[in-house]
Amino acid sequence: MSEVRTRFAPSPTGSLHIGGARTALFNWLYAMNQEGKFYLRIEDTDKLRSTEDAINAIFVGLKWLELNWEKEVIFQSQNIQRYKEVVNYLLEKNSAYYCYASEIELQEMKRKAREKGLIKSYNGLWRDRTPTKEEQKIKPVIRFKSPQHGQTILNDLVQGKVVVNNNQLDDMILLRSDGTPTYTLSVVVDDFDMNITHIIRGDDHLNNAVRQVNIFNALGWEIPNFAHIPLIHDSNGKKLSKRNNAVGVDEYKDMGILPEAMKNYLLRLGWSHGNDEIISENDAIKFFSIENIRKAASRFDLKKLKNINSYYIKNTSQAKILNLVINLLKEIYEEEIIQENLYKLKFIFDDLIERSDNIKDIFLNSKFLFEKNIDLNKDATKIIDNSKKDIIKNFATFLQNINDWNIDDIENSTKKFANNNDLSLKDIAMPLRACITGNKNSPNIFKIMFILGKNNTIKRIKKYFL
Q1: Lesser CB count within 10 Å: N end or C end of the chain?
Q2: 218 - beta bridge partners?
Q3: What residues have CB less than 8 Å from 456, skipping those under 6 apart?
Q4: Number of helices (H), then strands (E), in the chain
Q5: In contact, 377 and 435? CB cutoff 8 Å
Q6: Does residue 244 register a pLDDT over 70?
Q7: Element (H, E) at 210
Q8: Mean pLDDT across 81-101
């Protein structure tokens, strides 16, 4: 049995899409499962849409997910001459031809095809025709001579047997009039040259696969195994769109999702191992198989992703989580300020982790520890506006009488004050939390008061309850 080789071949037109990330993950996992190799190829022949920023975004996204590829990255733009050599070979063996059809002629063919309800729009006008001198003024494209009779059969590892009548297939363009190759051609050549054994990609490429099989056959090349996986839909069963969802891996990273959680969640979108929701990377490699990929489209559920992320936050080394939070703090605070207040963060870090399902929330909910003058969010402002200001003002004075500033004494004194004023503990704790942290919710308010210190605590209360 030959060595298994898979590849991820994105077009660099934006950030790494979560659908692309899952495709890369499945390719990587299958290669690891089979002790094979996983390659990265950048399909950048469309220079108008391919950008350096987009290419870098793909690199960053894959590295964040720790999907490491073999050796150097393959760039299609560096293989143009190779594609032309293959097309010349197809021309020599009469499997391709020059097409001089004008844009007007092509539009007319499409119109007639629509009227007749035909699937293919190009009628093969130039399959066996020599151009006149006038027609030679048109820069030709080079088309593939698709088989006109019989059927093309693709035995897909996910979709099963796919059969297409050849009379429905267009003579697809291999080289455009400017000499650039089309996707259909370059993919076939690259997969052959890279010795790719398994092509795992979205089922939106299923139509391309049938055409690519014919090119493989015309060239006399061995056809790789195809596995077309279902797309990821949104919660309403529609295609993921930027309008309604975050679609880039980088967006989820910025939300505070851990790469381990993202990989775990993407793995469960279309593949499963029993009823396991949490699957370690080692188990994923051990159990992954193409046969267990479902045919039906999966629905992206942000709530489930956050639940999985919450699990990983609570079960990942606290030192690692702390480092991620510190990195976010460094974006807005000087190193000296962070170091001066880091002990405060460590003191309530367990509480922050317990109540958070993403890294960003831990960061946001800890900012009050590093700021001298905190800003209130809307909820906190509303709580303070609706609180009994004179009572809280008196409470600030009452706090001055606590000699031993520890958590138990702070809590007991607060309860005593509430009882003496016919208030519930909530009546005191909510406005306290709002003016001390700037938020509606926080870890244990008495632990926070303790770690901030008496003077700082009273100062924050008096700022809003003078």
Answers
A1: N
A2: none
A3: none
A4: 19, 12
A5: no
A6: no
A7: helix 206-219
A8: 97
Q: What share of the chain is helix, strand, coil (3-state, %, to 5)?
A: 50, 10, 35
Please tell me the predicted confidence (pLDDT) of residue 272: 86
Residue 50's pLDDT band, with cuts at 50, 70 and 90, is confident
Stated pTM of the model: 0.91
Q: Which DSSP helix (H) or strand (E) runs through 324?
A: helix 318-329
Beta strands, E only, 31-109: 37-42, 74-75, 96-99
The answer to whether the CB of 176 falls within 8 A of the CB of 170 is no
Distances (CA, A) of 352 to 229, 362, 432, 436: 39, 6, 18, 16
Tokens of 34: 């089979």
- pLDDT surpassing 60 at residue 1: no
Could you tell me if 190 and 221 lie in one domain?
yes
Same domain, 92 and 206: yes
DSSP annotation string for 297-314? PEE--HHHHHHHHHHHHH
Q: What is the CATH number of the domain that holds 17?
A: 3.40.50.620
Q: Are residues 185 and 252 in the same domain?
A: no
Strand partners, 144: 96
Measured in Å, how far apart are the chain's first and last C-alpha atoms? 80
The dihedral region occupied by 94, where left means phi > 0, alpha psi between -120 and 50, and beta the remainder, is left
Alpha-carbon dihedral 111, 115, 120, 124, rounded to 10 degrees: -60
Q: Are residues 92 and 54 in the same domain?
A: no
Domain total of the chain: 4
- Domain identity same for 22 and 164: no
DSSP secondary structure letter of residue 205:
G
* Range in 154-158, 270-274, 314-318, 358-362 the model is least confident about: 270-274
Round the CA-based radius of gyration of the chain to a whole number and report it.
31
Find the helix or strand (DSSP H, E) in which 7 lies. Answer: strand 5-8
pLDDT confidence of 14, banded at 50, 70, 90?
confident
Question: Is the same domain home to 125 and 196?
Answer: yes
Other CB atoms closer than 10 Å to residue 48's CB: what's the count?
A: 6
Instruction: Determine which helix (DSSP H) or strand (DSSP E) holds 156, and give its type and residue range.
Output: strand 151-156
Please give the residue that has the higher pLDDT: either 433 or 137.
433
Provide φ and ψ at 298, rounded to 5°.
-100, 150
Task: Name the residue type at position 28.
Answer: W
Phi, psi (rounded to 5 degrees) for 161: -75, 125
Q: 255 and 277 share a domain? A: yes
Enclosing domain of residue 258: 5-71+232-309
CA–chain centroid gap for 131, Å, is 49
Distances (CA, A) of 387 to 55, 404, 412, 440: 53, 28, 21, 13
